[in-house]
Amino acid sequence: MNKNIPDVYNIIQELAWYFGNQGFNGECCEDLSLVEFMALKKVYEHDNITIQEIGKLLNCTKSGASKIIDRIENKGYVLREQSLVDGRICCVTITAQGIEIITKIVEKYTAYVGEMLKDRDSQTIESVKKALEILITSVRRQGFI
User: Tell me, which fold does domain 28-142 have in CATH?
Assistant: First the structure.
């Protein structure tokens, strides 16, 4: 094993800490927990996504995903609708309120990251982006723990 792998793991873990709920004084994203935000983001990124697909993307069961969707539906950010293709399938769509909150959150944290990296040159930022893309591609290929 490459001697830098433990350092890579420790850096990822520390980043997760700073970008998780605890890094933002116990709150992630307005009135959303981190898992609710991630579910809402998946709904925002995918038209007519099923609860089962959300569960797969979040590495949780369909039942777990359904509970998360219940919470963000109660907040008015998503709606459950029958699939137009197959009426037996329930799809989740984002509401105008959901689009508004996801846009606000993404803008807020994009500005936060921009502020952190403001003193770095474009090439360094591109290198950070590429390294993170390699990591996320590897995680997706490998699968969740």
Answer: Arc Repressor Mutant, subunit A (1.10.10)
